[in-house]
């Protein structure tokens, strides 16, 4: 479900490096939002990031992500997760690469690159 991907990407103070660290440990964003404080600490994130994730484990945060997802659908904006086959391999090499790319149009494997506007 893309809602949890969006919710993870929207946690204040948790950037791409820590998002990927959490994803590596928990395998899926939804598991992050159901994780205990102890499990989050075991993922290797620092206490400040742990606190931010715990504070985001609310229905309000998920509802905001759902609303953003609905807006993307209405505006015909697509979302590409970092583990999707079409996510550019060269972008994955960067530690700061976002876990989500929002785009319009059609992506194919033959595209030489993408532009960010």
Automatic annotation (TrEMBL):
InterPro entries: DprA, RuvA_2-like
GO biological process terms held by the UniProt record: DNA-mediated transformation
Chain segments annotated as transmembrane: none
Gene3D superfamilies registered for this protein in UniProt: 3.40.50.450
Coiled coil: none
Domain of life: Bacteria
PANTHER family for this protein: PROTEIN SMF
Identification of the protein by name: DNA-protecting protein DprA
Naturally occurring in which organism (per UniProt): Heliorestis acidaminivorans
